Amino acid sequence: MDDVSSEVAGRAAQRVVVVGGGPGGYESALVAAHLGADVTVVDRDGVGGAAVLTDCVPSKTLISTADFMSRFFAAAGLGVKLAESPEPGEVARADMPTVNERVKSLAAAQSADIAARLERDGVTVVRGTGRLDGPERVVVEGADGTTQTLDADVVLVSTGARPRELASAMPDGERILTWQQVYDVPELPEHVVVVGSGVTGAEFAHAYLGLGCEVTLVSSRDRVLPGEDPDAAAVIEDVFKRRGMNVLGRSRAESVVRDGDGVLVTLTDGRTVSASHCVMAVGSVPNTEDVGLASAGVALSSSGHVQVDSVSRTTARGVYAAGDCTGVLPLASVAAMQGRTAMSHALGDAVAPLNLRAVAANIFTDPEIATVGWSAPALDEAGIGYEAVMLPLATNPRAKMQNVRDGFVKLFSRSGSGVVLGGVVVAPRASELIFPVALAVQTKLTVDQVAASFTVYPSMSGSIAEAARQLHARPS
C-alpha cells in the first residue's frame, strides 16, 4: 500500500463523536461519514436541535401562516372580492390549535427526515446528554439513568443556546413566554407585548400582527432592528406602524408579571402596558455549562461561548465546536458551515476558512430583509472606498403587478474596480433574491459582470441588475 492509501485508510478508522444534533452537529456528522469515519451523534432532544424543533423551522412556519393570512387583507387592492365572512368586518381568522399542531408536526417531520438521512449514511445516534471527559472521551447519560463512554479521535461540540431569561420577567410558559414556548398557547392572543426589537423580536411581532393580534413592540433603542441596515430598518418600522403595531422606541422593560388572566409590563420610565401575553426576545445564552469543556482544555469567552478559530478548532487538540455555542453568528446556515468546515479540517480534507463576509442572512418580516457582505458602516469604519446605489422597488414592474410598494435593492461596489462588496434587499422573498448578490460577493464579480447577465422581464431580480448597471464606472 502506498503512502497516500495508508493515509486514507488511517482517516477511515477515525472515531468521531458529535455532542449535539443541531445544524452544526448533524452537518458535521454527514461530512465525517462521507469521509469514512466512524461517527456517533449524542443528542438529547431530537436531531435538528432548536433550529428545527423550537426555533427556525417553527417560527418561520408560524410566519408563513401569518403571511398567508395577510394576502386576504391585501386582496381588495388587487381587485379580488372575498365572500361575506361569518362576522362583520372579519376577513380571515387564525385557528391557533390547528396552527400550532401544524407547526409542531412540521418540525417533527423535519427532524425525522434528518434522522433518516443520518441513519442512511451510517451515523449512529445515541439519545442522551453528552459530557466531555477529557478531549478524547465523551460520557453519555441516557434518559433512563444509564451511562456509556465513547472514545473519540475527534470531538465536535454543538450544544447550541437557549433563550435568555430575566429575573424580573421569568417565563411561566402560559402568559410570559420565551420564543420557544409560544407554540403551546391554545388560543390566539388578544394583545401581545414583544420585549426586544432585534431579529427575533421583530419576526414574532410581525407574525402576531399578521395573525390578527394587537401587538406592542418594546424597543430599547431609537429604532427597531438596531443592528441592521438603517434604511431597511426604517422601512420595517414604517410598515409595522402603518399596519397598526404600537412601537415603543427608546423604552426598556423593567419587569413583566402575571396580572390575572394577562400580564403587566412595567417600563423603566414608569409607564405600564397591560396585555394578554408577553413574548421575551432579549437574546440567548450558550449551552456550555456542565459539558466538561474546561476540564478538557476548551477555553470559553467571558460570555460563556466556546472560543474557535476560522476552521472551528477550540483550544483543545482534537476538539472542535460549531453553532450558537460559539457565538460566531447565530444562524443555522453558519452553524452548518462551521460543522462541515470543522470535520473536513479534522479529517484532512480540503477546506477553506469560514468567510463571514460572504454570509447571507435574512429577517423574515414582511417585507423580508436580506443582507450579504459588507455593510455601509463597516466599509466606512474600515476606510474602504466604495460606491452605493439604492433602487426603490416601487418602480419595478413586477412589484407593481404584485402591489408591492415597500422595499428596495441596495448594492455596494469597490471604487475603481467595481467588485461587488455587499448588498441589501428589502422585498417579499428577499431570502431568495439575495442569492445572486451572495454569488457576486463570494466569487468577487464586478458590477459590470452582474449587469451583463440576463434577468427575466418582468422580475424583482431585474432591480438587482439595474442597480449594478447604475454602478458602472466609465473609464477616465
From TrEMBL:
Gene3D superfamilies: 3.30.390.30, FAD/NAD(P)-binding domain (3.50.50.60). This is NAD(P)H-quinone dehydrogenase. Its cofactor is FAD. Residues 360-468 form the Pyridine nucleotide-disulphide oxidoreductase dimerisation domain. InterPro entries: FAD/NAD-bd_sf (IPR036188), FAD/NAD-binding_dom (IPR023753), FAD/NAD-linked_Rdtase_dimer_sf (IPR016156), Pyr_nuc-diS_OxRdtase (IPR001100), Pyr_nucl-diS_OxRdtase_dimer (IPR004099). PANTHER family: MERCURIC REDUCTASE, NAD(P)H DEHYDROGENASE (QUINONE). Residues 15-339 form the FAD/NAD(P)-binding domain. Belongs to the class-I pyridine nucleotide-disulfide oxidoreductase family. It comes from Angustibacter luteus. Keywords: FAD, Flavoprotein.
